[in-house]
Amino acid sequence: MKDELDPWALGATFGIVLALFAVFIGVSARFGYGVEWVELLSSVYLGFSKDAVGILVGCLWAFVDGVIVGALVAFLYNFFSGKMQK
Known about the structure:
- The chain has three helices and no strands.
- By secondary structure, the protein is mainly alpha-helical.
């Protein structure tokens, strides 16, 4: 029996972690820390800023981004682990 990663589970995990990271960065920028990170991430996550609506928008973008990346990582892991066992 070969071990496989569940793309949806790993995607959801990545999504939650990235969303929490975006919230943390956005809230900390309100206190003057990590403002440069908000500027950097706002170039990728449209609408992300340090105000409440911007943090929510960034959180949603980060979640979607994390789901896609996590699912892709799981898919590639499953693909290459299957190829290596043959």
